[in-house]
Amino acid sequence: MAKIPRLTTTLAYDRYMAGKKLVSSVDRPWRHLVLRSYLEPAEQELLEAPGLQDVTLMTLGSGAEHLERNVNGHWESAELRMGDVWYVPPVPVSWRWRSTSDEPLSTVHLHLERSLIDSVADQMELGGSRELSLGDAMQFHDPLIAAMLGALHRAAGDPTDSRLYVDALAHALAAHLLQHYSRGPRVGCLPPHPERLVPRRIRRVTDYIRANLAADLAIGELAAQAGLSNFHFARVFRRETGETPHQFVTRLRLEEAARLLRATDLPVLQIALAVGYENASHFSVQFKRGYGVTPLAYRLRG
Protein backbone atom coordinates (compact mmCIF):
# COMPACT_ATOMS: atom_id res chain seq x y z
CA MET A 1 0.00 0.00 0.00
CA ALA A 2 1.32 3.45 -0.93
CA LYS A 3 2.37 5.62 1.94
CA ILE A 4 -0.16 8.31 2.89
CA PRO A 5 1.33 11.82 2.50
CA ARG A 6 1.25 14.13 5.48
CA LEU A 7 -0.71 16.83 3.61
CA THR A 8 -2.67 16.89 0.37
CA THR A 9 -4.85 19.34 -1.54
CA THR A 10 -8.61 19.59 -1.23
CA LEU A 11 -9.08 18.39 -4.81
CA ALA A 12 -6.82 15.36 -4.27
CA TYR A 13 -8.47 14.52 -0.92
CA ASP A 14 -11.38 12.93 -2.77
CA ARG A 15 -9.27 9.89 -3.72
CA TYR A 16 -8.95 8.87 -0.05
CA MET A 17 -12.71 8.76 0.61
CA ALA A 18 -14.49 5.42 1.03
CA GLY A 19 -18.03 6.41 0.04
CA LYS A 20 -19.89 7.00 -3.21
CA LYS A 21 -19.91 10.67 -4.15
CA LEU A 22 -23.38 12.22 -4.11
CA VAL A 23 -22.79 15.96 -4.60
CA SER A 24 -19.72 18.02 -5.52
CA SER A 25 -19.18 21.75 -6.02
CA VAL A 26 -15.84 21.25 -7.80
CA ASP A 27 -17.28 22.16 -11.21
CA ARG A 28 -19.31 25.11 -9.89
CA PRO A 29 -17.91 28.66 -10.23
CA TRP A 30 -17.60 28.99 -6.44
CA ARG A 31 -14.72 30.74 -4.73
CA HIS A 32 -12.95 29.95 -1.47
CA LEU A 33 -14.61 26.61 -0.79
CA VAL A 34 -15.29 23.09 -1.99
CA LEU A 35 -18.21 20.99 -0.77
CA ARG A 36 -18.76 17.28 -1.36
CA SER A 37 -21.12 14.70 0.10
CA TYR A 38 -20.81 10.91 0.13
CA LEU A 39 -22.99 7.88 0.70
CA GLU A 40 -20.81 5.99 3.19
CA PRO A 41 -20.47 2.25 3.83
CA ALA A 42 -22.44 1.16 6.88
CA GLU A 43 -19.20 -0.05 8.46
CA GLN A 44 -15.59 0.89 7.79
CA GLU A 45 -12.71 -1.01 9.39
CA LEU A 46 -10.01 1.56 8.68
CA LEU A 47 -9.65 4.57 6.43
CA GLU A 48 -6.39 6.52 6.39
CA ALA A 49 -6.28 10.04 4.97
CA PRO A 50 -3.70 12.83 4.88
CA GLY A 51 -4.16 16.23 6.45
CA LEU A 52 -5.43 19.31 4.67
CA GLN A 53 -4.29 22.91 4.83
CA ASP A 54 -7.81 24.15 4.14
CA VAL A 55 -10.19 24.37 7.11
CA THR A 56 -12.33 21.23 6.85
CA LEU A 57 -15.66 20.71 8.60
CA MET A 58 -17.90 17.66 8.35
CA THR A 59 -21.46 16.83 9.30
CA LEU A 60 -23.99 14.11 8.60
CA GLY A 61 -26.30 14.38 5.63
CA SER A 62 -28.37 11.46 6.91
CA GLY A 63 -28.22 8.65 9.46
CA ALA A 64 -26.14 8.35 12.63
CA GLU A 65 -22.82 6.68 13.43
CA HIS A 66 -20.29 5.63 16.01
CA LEU A 67 -17.12 7.31 14.73
CA GLU A 68 -13.54 6.78 15.88
CA ARG A 69 -10.45 8.68 14.81
CA ASN A 70 -6.74 8.34 15.48
CA VAL A 71 -4.66 11.50 15.54
CA ASN A 72 -0.97 11.23 16.43
CA GLY A 73 -1.41 7.68 17.77
CA HIS A 74 -4.38 8.46 20.02
CA TRP A 75 -7.83 6.95 19.35
CA GLU A 76 -10.98 8.80 20.40
CA SER A 77 -14.63 8.22 19.61
CA ALA A 78 -17.97 10.00 19.41
CA GLU A 79 -21.63 9.17 18.80
CA LEU A 80 -22.71 11.42 15.95
CA ARG A 81 -26.24 12.48 15.10
CA MET A 82 -27.75 14.87 12.58
CA GLY A 83 -26.75 18.43 13.48
CA ASP A 84 -23.39 17.47 14.98
CA VAL A 85 -20.28 19.01 13.40
CA TRP A 86 -16.74 17.71 13.51
CA TYR A 87 -13.42 19.19 12.47
CA VAL A 88 -10.69 17.49 10.44
CA PRO A 89 -7.29 18.63 11.78
CA PRO A 90 -4.47 19.46 9.30
CA VAL A 91 -2.57 16.23 10.06
CA PRO A 92 -2.96 12.60 8.86
CA VAL A 93 -6.01 10.93 10.44
CA SER A 94 -7.14 7.29 10.64
CA TRP A 95 -10.91 6.75 10.76
CA ARG A 96 -13.25 3.85 11.46
CA TRP A 97 -17.00 3.83 11.93
CA ARG A 98 -20.25 1.92 11.96
CA SER A 99 -23.75 3.11 11.27
CA THR A 100 -26.10 3.22 14.28
CA SER A 101 -29.27 4.03 12.35
CA ASP A 102 -31.58 2.29 9.90
CA GLU A 103 -31.18 5.26 7.56
CA PRO A 104 -28.43 5.38 4.91
CA LEU A 105 -25.26 6.97 6.26
CA SER A 106 -24.09 10.04 4.35
CA THR A 107 -21.57 12.74 5.18
CA VAL A 108 -21.03 16.34 4.05
CA HIS A 109 -17.45 17.67 3.77
CA LEU A 110 -16.77 21.42 3.55
CA HIS A 111 -13.29 22.76 2.80
CA LEU A 112 -12.73 26.50 3.40
CA GLU A 113 -9.59 28.12 2.00
CA ARG A 114 -7.20 29.51 4.60
CA SER A 115 -6.96 32.66 2.49
CA LEU A 116 -10.65 33.33 3.15
CA ILE A 117 -10.15 32.97 6.91
CA ASP A 118 -7.23 35.42 6.78
CA SER A 119 -9.13 37.88 4.60
CA VAL A 120 -12.19 37.90 6.87
CA ALA A 121 -9.95 38.23 9.95
CA ASP A 122 -8.42 41.34 8.41
CA GLN A 123 -11.87 42.77 7.66
CA MET A 124 -12.95 42.12 11.25
CA GLU A 125 -9.70 43.67 12.50
CA LEU A 126 -8.98 40.67 14.69
CA GLY A 127 -5.23 41.05 14.32
CA GLY A 128 -3.53 37.93 15.68
CA SER A 129 -6.81 36.28 16.64
CA ARG A 130 -7.17 34.26 13.44
CA GLU A 131 -6.01 30.80 14.51
CA LEU A 132 -9.04 28.55 14.88
CA SER A 133 -9.10 26.34 17.98
CA LEU A 134 -11.33 23.55 16.68
CA GLY A 135 -8.97 20.62 16.99
CA ASP A 136 -9.29 19.86 20.71
CA ALA A 137 -12.78 18.39 20.49
CA MET A 138 -13.69 15.67 18.05
CA GLN A 139 -17.24 16.96 17.74
CA PHE A 140 -19.01 20.15 18.71
CA HIS A 141 -22.56 21.46 18.69
CA ASP A 142 -23.20 24.71 16.85
CA PRO A 143 -26.67 24.96 15.26
CA LEU A 144 -25.66 27.94 13.10
CA ILE A 145 -22.66 26.12 11.58
CA ALA A 146 -24.80 23.03 11.02
CA ALA A 147 -27.45 25.17 9.29
CA MET A 148 -24.84 26.85 7.09
CA LEU A 149 -23.37 23.50 6.08
CA GLY A 150 -26.88 22.31 5.22
CA ALA A 151 -27.54 25.42 3.13
CA LEU A 152 -24.25 25.04 1.25
CA HIS A 153 -24.99 21.34 0.67
CA ARG A 154 -28.37 22.19 -0.82
CA ALA A 155 -26.78 24.90 -2.98
CA ALA A 156 -24.17 22.45 -4.30
CA GLY A 157 -26.98 20.22 -5.52
CA ASP A 158 -29.05 23.04 -7.01
CA PRO A 159 -27.69 24.51 -10.26
CA THR A 160 -29.95 27.55 -9.89
CA ASP A 161 -28.30 28.86 -6.71
CA SER A 162 -26.04 31.80 -7.52
CA ARG A 163 -22.43 32.43 -6.63
CA LEU A 164 -23.44 35.58 -4.74
CA TYR A 165 -25.55 33.49 -2.34
CA VAL A 166 -22.75 30.97 -1.77
CA ASP A 167 -20.14 33.74 -1.43
CA ALA A 168 -22.22 35.41 1.29
CA LEU A 169 -22.62 32.11 3.17
CA ALA A 170 -18.88 31.36 2.97
CA HIS A 171 -17.94 34.78 4.36
CA ALA A 172 -20.57 34.53 7.10
CA LEU A 173 -19.28 31.09 8.10
CA ALA A 174 -15.67 32.31 8.20
CA ALA A 175 -16.71 35.30 10.32
CA HIS A 176 -18.66 33.07 12.71
CA LEU A 177 -15.70 30.70 13.11
CA LEU A 178 -13.36 33.61 13.82
CA GLN A 179 -15.77 35.29 16.21
CA HIS A 180 -16.41 32.18 18.31
CA TYR A 181 -13.56 29.73 17.72
CA SER A 182 -10.40 31.80 17.26
CA ARG A 183 -7.69 32.08 19.87
CA GLY A 184 -5.37 34.95 20.70
CA PRO A 185 -6.02 38.52 21.85
CA ARG A 186 -8.84 40.34 20.15
CA VAL A 187 -7.45 43.70 19.15
CA GLY A 188 -10.65 44.95 17.70
CA CYS A 189 -14.11 44.09 16.54
CA LEU A 190 -15.93 45.44 13.55
CA PRO A 191 -14.21 48.36 11.82
CA PRO A 192 -15.60 51.70 12.93
CA HIS A 193 -17.96 53.24 10.38
CA PRO A 194 -20.09 56.26 11.32
CA GLU A 195 -23.66 55.01 11.29
CA ARG A 196 -24.87 58.27 9.74
CA LEU A 197 -22.92 57.37 6.58
CA VAL A 198 -24.41 53.87 6.23
CA PRO A 199 -27.65 54.79 4.36
CA ARG A 200 -25.62 56.76 1.80
CA ARG A 201 -23.21 53.86 1.34
CA ILE A 202 -26.06 51.39 0.84
CA ARG A 203 -27.77 53.70 -1.68
CA ARG A 204 -24.50 53.76 -3.60
CA VAL A 205 -24.60 49.97 -3.72
CA THR A 206 -28.24 49.71 -4.77
CA ASP A 207 -27.61 52.23 -7.56
CA TYR A 208 -24.59 50.18 -8.64
CA ILE A 209 -26.66 46.97 -8.69
CA ARG A 210 -29.38 48.57 -10.82
CA ALA A 211 -26.79 49.78 -13.33
CA ASN A 212 -24.95 46.44 -13.50
CA LEU A 213 -27.56 43.68 -13.39
CA ALA A 214 -25.77 41.75 -16.15
CA ALA A 215 -22.50 41.65 -14.17
CA ASP A 216 -21.29 38.99 -11.72
CA LEU A 217 -22.27 40.83 -8.52
CA ALA A 218 -20.10 39.10 -5.93
CA ILE A 219 -20.48 40.05 -2.27
CA GLY A 220 -16.89 41.38 -2.14
CA GLU A 221 -17.51 43.74 -5.05
CA LEU A 222 -20.71 45.09 -3.50
CA ALA A 223 -19.02 45.56 -0.12
CA ALA A 224 -16.19 47.43 -1.82
CA GLN A 225 -18.72 49.81 -3.41
CA ALA A 226 -19.97 50.58 0.11
CA GLY A 227 -16.47 50.88 1.57
CA LEU A 228 -17.33 48.24 4.17
CA SER A 229 -16.03 44.80 5.06
CA ASN A 230 -18.02 41.87 3.65
CA PHE A 231 -19.18 40.92 7.15
CA HIS A 232 -20.31 44.43 8.12
CA PHE A 233 -21.82 45.09 4.69
CA ALA A 234 -24.10 42.03 4.76
CA ARG A 235 -25.49 43.04 8.16
CA VAL A 236 -26.13 46.71 7.40
CA PHE A 237 -27.49 46.01 3.91
CA ARG A 238 -30.21 43.80 5.35
CA ARG A 239 -30.92 46.33 8.09
CA GLU A 240 -31.31 49.16 5.56
CA THR A 241 -33.19 47.32 2.80
CA GLY A 242 -34.96 44.48 4.59
CA GLU A 243 -33.34 41.98 2.21
CA THR A 244 -30.03 40.16 1.95
CA PRO A 245 -27.81 41.25 -0.97
CA HIS A 246 -28.69 37.99 -2.75
CA GLN A 247 -32.45 38.55 -2.32
CA PHE A 248 -32.16 42.17 -3.46
CA VAL A 249 -30.15 41.32 -6.59
CA THR A 250 -32.48 38.46 -7.51
CA ARG A 251 -35.59 40.63 -7.10
CA LEU A 252 -34.20 43.45 -9.26
CA ARG A 253 -33.07 41.02 -11.95
CA LEU A 254 -36.51 39.43 -12.14
CA GLU A 255 -38.30 42.79 -12.11
CA GLU A 256 -36.17 44.02 -15.02
CA ALA A 257 -36.72 40.74 -16.86
CA ALA A 258 -40.48 41.08 -16.41
CA ARG A 259 -40.33 44.62 -17.78
CA LEU A 260 -38.36 43.47 -20.84
CA LEU A 261 -40.78 40.59 -21.43
CA ARG A 262 -43.71 43.03 -21.42
CA ALA A 263 -42.12 45.89 -23.34
CA THR A 264 -39.91 44.16 -25.95
CA ASP A 265 -39.82 41.24 -28.34
CA LEU A 266 -36.31 40.20 -27.28
CA PRO A 267 -35.72 36.43 -27.14
CA VAL A 268 -35.83 34.91 -23.65
CA LEU A 269 -32.13 34.00 -23.82
CA GLN A 270 -31.18 37.59 -24.62
CA ILE A 271 -33.24 38.85 -21.70
CA ALA A 272 -31.68 36.24 -19.41
CA LEU A 273 -28.17 37.40 -20.34
CA ALA A 274 -29.16 41.06 -20.02
CA VAL A 275 -30.19 40.59 -16.38
CA GLY A 276 -27.24 38.46 -15.29
CA TYR A 277 -28.21 34.83 -15.87
CA GLU A 278 -25.81 32.46 -17.62
CA ASN A 279 -28.46 30.59 -19.61
CA ALA A 280 -32.18 30.54 -20.37
CA SER A 281 -32.81 27.40 -18.29
CA HIS A 282 -31.45 28.90 -15.06
CA PHE A 283 -33.33 32.13 -15.75
CA SER A 284 -36.62 30.29 -16.39
CA VAL A 285 -36.39 28.37 -13.11
CA GLN A 286 -35.73 31.56 -11.12
CA PHE A 287 -38.44 33.50 -12.96
CA LYS A 288 -41.05 30.83 -12.27
CA ARG A 289 -40.06 30.85 -8.59
CA GLY A 290 -40.65 34.59 -8.46
CA TYR A 291 -43.70 34.99 -10.72
CA GLY A 292 -45.34 31.57 -10.70
CA VAL A 293 -45.15 31.15 -14.50
CA THR A 294 -42.42 30.67 -17.10
CA PRO A 295 -41.07 33.74 -18.94
CA LEU A 296 -42.91 32.73 -22.14
CA ALA A 297 -46.20 32.25 -20.29
CA TYR A 298 -45.72 35.64 -18.61
CA ARG A 299 -45.16 37.29 -21.99
CA LEU A 300 -48.21 35.63 -23.56
CA ARG A 301 -50.33 36.66 -20.58
CA GLY A 302 -49.46 40.25 -21.45
UniProtKB/TrEMBL annotation:
Keyword annotations from UniProtKB, A to Z: DNA-binding, Transcription, Transcription regulation
Location of the HTH araC/xylS-type domain: 203-301
Superkingdom of origin: Bacteria
Gene3D superfamilies: Homeodomain-like (1.10.10.60)
Xref: SUPFAM superfamilies: Homeodomain-like
SMART domains per UniProt: HTH_ARAC
InterPro entries xrefs: AraC_XylS_family_regulators, Homeodomain-like_sf, HTH_AraC, HTH_AraC-typ_CS, Tscrpt_reg_AraC-type_HTH
Protein name: AraC family transcriptional regulator
Record organism: Paraburkholderia agricolaris
